[in-house]
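Notes from hallway chat w/ T.B., transcribed later so I don't forget. T.B. wanted the structure written out for a chain they're using in a teaching module, and asked if we could keep both sequence and structure tokens in one place. Agreed to drop them here.
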Amino acid sequence: MSIGADISLREYLKKYFGFGTFKGTQEIIIRSVLSRNDTFVLMPTGGGKSLCYQLPSLISPGTSIVISPLIALMKNQVDAMRSFSTEDGVAHFLNSSLTKLAIQQVKKDILSGKTKLLYVAPESLTKQENIDFLKKIKISFYAIDEAHCISEWGHDFRPEYRRIRPIINEIGAAPIIALTATATPKVQHDIQKNLDIMHANVFKSSFNRPNLYYEVRPKVNAAKEIIKFIKNNSGKSGIIYCLSRRKVEELAEILKVNGIKALPYHAGMDSETRTTTQDEFLMEDIDVIVATIAFGMGIDKPDVRFVIHYDIPKSLEGYYQETGRAGRDGGEGRCITFYSYKDIQKLEKFMQGKPIAEQEIGKQLLLETASYAESSICRRKQLLNYFGEKYLEDNCETCDNCIHPKTQFEGKKYIRKVIETVLEVKEKFKADHIVNILTGDLTSAVKTYKHHQLEVFGSGNEKDDKFWNAMVRQALISRLLIKDIENYGLLKVSEDGYEFLKNPYSFMVTQDHEYNENGEEDALGPGQKTGVVDEELFNILKDLRKQISRKLNLPPFVIFQDPSLEDMAIQYPVILEELQNISGVGVGKAKRYGKEFIEIIKKHVEEKEILRPQDMVVKSIINKSGLKVYIIQSIDRKRSLEDIADAKNLEMNDLLKEIEAIVHSGTKINLDYYIDQVLDEDHQQDVFEYFRDEAKTESINEALQELGEDEFTEEDIRLMRIKFLSEMGN
């Protein structure tokens, strides 16, 4: 359908979508599609990509085929299109979630001409019955959404996407519009080549999102940092990304027990649960989604105020797209990433076993991500450079590196040396090889190409590889070096680089961050020390414990063990809820013995004017972990301890440690059914009375010496100690 004056197209926009004006380059893109040109659209999240194919679909004869990667995304898009129309049949999706009856209705609506947009997954497109059906209908054009999935260099590579062009040829050619929010020049080239649209009209919007704040933090006590951040941004919507499903569920649970309205989301959940969770987030019944990258593609929530990466993403494209879900309405959007180089090493290990070419690609993408995280250059400048866009401002004022700049030094001679080395090896090698030459690292590749015989070999050995990698990054950011688009990673010298060699100028370089290599905390359970023990308070608490033990006629260790008192003398809990976070203190013990302890701690804090640590140990979910729940439930069902140990592949010693931890944290359990089988009543009574009346400590060795090693085993004593602590302490 031809469109007349500008006002006509805007009338269609107003009629179908209620908008008075187009956003950015939308109008010119739509005109390209309506003129039946192949079109490539690179537009950041929130730029309005969907409209670029939705409006042409409604005003073109026939049905447009929209190829989309996720069922949830299709459903959202179809629901949105139906909300703009009086006819439900205007948009449909065709995928594995539909019943046969529903598929019949979809096909009926398409054949009748009602359906203007048909969303299909690439997997559905490959089915012969669908190909045969689509041959019968008039197709206005094909829209390939999330087109970066085509490229092996893209962050969401889907092999099925590479089969789209042959299938289109089989169904029947029609114009193609490919759309993505993230594509480096390499990925763009790969998409166009694979879809055979090398001569397409290309529309690139700026990748700059000025309202987003970017920050990278060392991954130390990340869960606590996240809780503190969310509590300081109460009521705001946010997404937290983790790489593993296990971490998603664990972190969501930690947030929940700390009073944050959060739910997990990952591909291992059934579709109904995922849909419900997504709806609750959109309806603001929950504030935070903890998710794998399965969540977010196409999510139309404009007021996400923060996106946190608990784990570093696998690529900068992934990072850019995921952070792009913050502040789509132009309002506040904080993007915080926790980084430890150990995470990069973990991701590299995951790639082992994959084809060599895939490993190479994955490794290169990871190096880019690590470079971004570790660099002290303006985050915005780095991101835009990565996507082939130049950012000219000296200070973006909305990233951690610009707000808190690091020390600078003159880097002219180092940058010059890097460029000269690239030229020495005829521009045929990647950054790591250049760095190995400069540092004098005699790798097999250096030997093979005889580069150890070059004059530049070892000429930079006064600095380490990290320093030289930073120099390469700086040269790339400044466009003195570029990466070959066809042979990704090979360094080439740009015209600016040649000019720099002829006429060197001052090149100020920023020192990179030094990230803590210890990574994050080992566990989020109790017992984590965040400071120095207050010896005065510790002794006061010991005296109080002694008084209570005498009053109750119980050994002091039954009430609280020393590690618990030490933790109290570090954390200063002043309410029962805080006391429950302390090492070895669960709900039961806190309620039974806690009142006097928190009163004395509160008095001490006030008298000494102590400033309590703000990042209190967060509530632990250690007692809710799958193993502990399994053990408690199995004991409730009176399963033998041997069976429980076998089922979880544990040694008996390890199982008893788990049971002891459960009891120490205040949970009452009953092992009588098992103890009765291994110890007679008299022996049970001897051990019980020893712990009640004689024991100075809970030591197993002392108990064995007192009671006789010829009559009891260590396991007997441990079982009875569990019984005693559970009955008397909990």
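Follow-up for T.B.: The longest strand covers residues 212-218. Might be a good example for the class.
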